């Protein structure tokens, strides 16, 4: 068996060429005949190999992170890497099952849907989302007001709205799409926002009118735009780190237990935490805005995928101060979520239920602001499509998520958290 160091040298030597080609391309990236494999991790050397590829991808892309033994990950293999992948599969005795034989076809399926008017049968670009927010501001004067929750490297605003039916309410901050490629996150947040304004359901009206909602559908606008115009699989911000590497993982860049595990110091890696906490204008300005919200009792963060409801912290499996109460609320929430469409979620501490991940927004809000109700969702699905979830699953995903949010707020109220 060849040593991992030799494999790493081969991957690294080709990495620079691949990055140069990627950064100078003018046309949107296509993934024709890119294959997606489900790869089982059964041995330490297999895990080390996949982690090495993740750090120096050289054309490969992970749709789920190689973190633990006895798990499986989705790996995108470009056509020109097939021979190498087959060699690595044989050399390291990897069990690799073909999930999709043409990633471009999966992406094109996700791009389908009606976009003539804003709705939830399609995924929408940033300009459509912002235009829709403007429509709400005009249609609900005195209830919906605009907020600018931050700024971006490329000069965009991190926009959102505040929904308030009366003064003195406890506040809820909802954040979507901090990871650019997780489109179902923005779609779910906008669906929930629409229901807060239009639903006649008594439970929805209760949470709409008795809380102040601060809603930010896209917390990483530059990255989100980039996924629509250039590279669908982009995750990070778009700040230039060096001549070859762009972006920081904006959910590893917050100033709480920074770089305490689950991050990378390699600028081209997807989980690059940045040169310092709050190095990114997005995280720096967004955190400053959240700090100004009065009576903040609840923070809800939306990601994909995996069907998980997570509580802090990501840097340790040690339970936080109100761990038992949050877990009890979480168990009731996922039970309610399951009722509508049968989706099965798990609840747990970030570090124990998914992987160690330090420097996240959720951990910062809990650890720095001491916000009592703090949850992060990994929305649908459990691996078939990941963050390439087809648009025909948007409404069902959002409906069941809203059901669970109602439970979180009502259970939190019963415990006096609001």
Structural notes for this entry:
With 418 residues, this protein is of the alpha/beta class. It is 39% helix and 17% strand. The protein is built from 13 helices and twelve strands. It has helices at 4-24, 44-55, 82-91, 103-110, 126-139, 183-198, 202-209, 221-229, 281-291, 323-341, 350-353, 361-369, 394-414, and strands at residues 35-41, 61-62, 71-77, 95-100, 144-151, 157-163, 171-176, 212-216, 296-304, 308-311, 346-349, 373-379. The strands form two sheets. An eight-stranded mixed sheet has the order 5-6-8-7-9-12-10-11, with helices on both faces. It has a four-stranded antiparallel sheet with strand order 2-3-1-4. Strand 5 (144-151) and strand 6 (157-163) form a beta hairpin. Helix 1 (4-24) runs parallel beside helix 2. The longest helix is centred in the first third of the chain and has 21 residues, at 4-24. The protein is globular and about 65 Å long. The N and C termini lie far apart (59 Å). Mean pLDDT is 92; it is low at 9-25.
Please outline the helices and strands.
Elements: H1 4-24, E1 35-41, H2 44-55, E2 61-62, E3 71-77, H3 82-91, E4 95-100, H4 103-110, H5 126-139, E5 144-151, E6 157-163, E7 171-176, H6 183-198, H7 202-209, E8 212-216, H8 221-229, H9 281-291, E9 296-304, E10 308-311, H10 323-341, E11 346-349, H11 350-353, H12 361-369, E12 373-379, H13 394-414
Parallel strand pairs: 7-8, 7-9, 9-12, 10-11
Antiparallel strand pairs: 1-3, 1-4, 2-3, 5-6, 6-8, 10-12
Helix pairs in contact: 1-2, 6-13, 10-13
């Amino acid at each position: 068996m060849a040593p991992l160091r030799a494999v790493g040298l081969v991957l690294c030597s080709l990495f620079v060429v691949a990055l140069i080609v990627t950064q100078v391309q003018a046309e949107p990236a296509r993934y024709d005949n890119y294959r997606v494999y489900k790869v089982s991790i059964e041995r330490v050397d297999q895990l080390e190999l996949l982690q090495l590829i993740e750090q120096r991808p050289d054309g490969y892309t992970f749709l789920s992170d190689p973190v633990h033994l006895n798990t499986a990950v989705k790996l995108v293999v470009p056509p020109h890497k097939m021979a190498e992948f087959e060699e690595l599969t044989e050399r390291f005795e990897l069990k690799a099952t073909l999930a999709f034989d043409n990633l471009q076809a999966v992406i094109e399926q996700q791009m389908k849907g009606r976009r003539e008017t804003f709705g939830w049968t399609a995924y929408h670009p940033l300009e459509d989302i912002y235009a829709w927010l403007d429509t709400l501001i005009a249609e609900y004067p005195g209830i919906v007001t605009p907020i600018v929750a931050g700024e971006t490297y490329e000069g965009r605003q991190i926009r959102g709205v505040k929904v308030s039916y009366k003064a003195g309410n406890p506040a809820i901050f909802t954040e979507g799409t901090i990871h650019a490629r997780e489109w179902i996150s923005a779609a779910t947040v906008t669906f929930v926002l629409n229901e807060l304004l239009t639903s006649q359901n008594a439970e929805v009206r209760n949470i709409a009118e008795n809380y102040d909602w601060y809603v930010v559908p896209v917390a990483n606008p530059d990255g989100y735009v980039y996924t629509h115009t250039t590279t669908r699989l982009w995750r990070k911000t778009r700040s230039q780190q060096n001549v070859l590497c762009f972006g920081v993982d904006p959910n590893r860049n917050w100033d709480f237990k920074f770089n305490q595990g689950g991050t990378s110091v390699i600028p081209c890696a997807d989980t690059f935490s940045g040169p310092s906490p709050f190095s990114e204008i997005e995280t720096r300005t967004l955190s400053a805005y959240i700090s100004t919200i009065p009576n903040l009792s609840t923070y809800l963060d939306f990601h994909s995928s995996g069907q998980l409801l997570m509580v802090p912290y990501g840097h340790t499996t040690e339970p936080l101060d109100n761990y038992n109460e949050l877990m009890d609320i979480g168990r009731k929430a996922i039970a309610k979520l399951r009722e509508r469409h049968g989706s099965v979620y798990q609840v747990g501490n970030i570090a124990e239920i998914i992987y160690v991940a330090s420097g996240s927004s959720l951990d910062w809000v809990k650890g720095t602001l001491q916000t009592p109700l703090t949850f992060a969702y990994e929305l649908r699905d459990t691996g078939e499509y990941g963050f390439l979830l087809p648009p025909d699953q948007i409404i069902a995903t959002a409906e069941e998520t809203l059901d669970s949010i109602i439970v979180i707020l009502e259970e939190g109220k019963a415990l006096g958290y609001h």
